[in-house]
Fold:
Amino acid sequence: MEKLVVEKSMNLRGHIRVSGAKNACLPILAATLLGTEDIILEDVPKLKDVEIMCEVLRALGAEVEDLGGGVVRVNAKNINTYETKYELMSKMRASFLVMGPLLGRMNKAKNSLPGGCTIGARPIDLHLKGFRALGVECEEHYGEDDDGEDSYILAHTENLVGNKVYLDFPSVGATENIMMAAVLAKGRTIIENAAMEPEIVDLSNFLRKLGGNIKGAGTNTIIIDGVEKLYGAKHQIIPDRIEAGTFMVAAAITQGDVIIDNVIPNHLRPVISKLEEAGCQIEEFDESVRVVGPEFLKGIDIKTLPYPGFPTDMQAQFMAMMTQCQGTNTVIETVFENRFMHVDEFRRMGAMISVDDRSATIKGGRKLVGNKVYATDLRCGAALILAGFVAEGQTEVYDIYHIDRGYEDIEAKLKGIGGNIKRVNE
Ligand code: EPZ
Structure:
């Protein structure tokens, strides 16, 4: 079993480069199923989750070729089934994003239920609400355990017809799945209370390059006018704003001076604003940001919200930093119902954190001590590395497969700015 061994690493400095965004790449890979000619994707990050999505596409009959250097060629002209097998679905819940494109291409899709994970139940009711609005019959089959082999959704329709859909919550995945189903539907679809994340905009830009007719991505109302057919395209995945934010916190927490390259600063407004509130100096350039961490971090409060609010995927990383901020800091997690699994791990390193339902209070100025800790999800894993950089002694992070799902070569990148971190095979 692999683990990451992290030693105290103050004053990180130098350049660190961000990869393509996992949460843009996964829906865009799913969307390649809508194309009927060669598609070239650039800046595809080397991640476990991306490998699994490519496996899912191949299993559906698409050609998927890794051309090296982050370039992937996909051709979905000859997809030959509408069913994604359980063993693939169970590896990664984002495989559920192939439902929309398969409905668009084949008017039919069968997917086992994505099931929950440590951060929450991760329901799909809004995805199904959208498909049903487009005229799709969605049969829900539940076995004894709701994410087992015999629990699946069988969706089918005579024809996909555009409609108005209101999302009770601006769900990222539901917005993406409905967009991908609507792009080949007959007529107009309007998604109201749509998610506004940059990854939605990147998906929309990709679908438009394929020949789709989409307006309003990035706002809470997205208008899709169905077209007959989609073709091929070349597309560069946007940089990963969450990986960038993670490295910004690494500089902040270690009194570092780090330049993060391949960044769109505008995607990081809440993170930049909160780091400045904590006393960091931030310099923005066209495609990079410089973060200088102060000697003493001021206390801050965060509340996670859908974009453009503070990103839930940055909550664990900020909590690691808050253990070092002065005074008492609070976190309110409004997006997922169980996203404080990292608190116990921080406590094992000496943090003083109290949790009451969806809010956490973090006592600042705490000396952390290295310990054996476990990544419960990919962002918790990244946050434990950050905590290990400021803790006295050695921190051993286990279950690092979570981290490899969302961070490409994380130890090589962090070593490059002076981080004392190594991957060890136990
Ligand atoms: C995407 O997940 C991201 N994953 C998550 O990133 C991210 O945390 C999340 O968006 C929020 O930004 C990918 O893009 C692959 P949601 P998604 O649907 O689409 C509720 C990471 O660390 N909901 O916006 O699953 C749901 O329960 C991962 O990279 C419904 O109620 O998120 C949750 O409380 C973690 N019904 C809230 O919406 C539905 O049908 C947000 O979920 C769908 C969602």
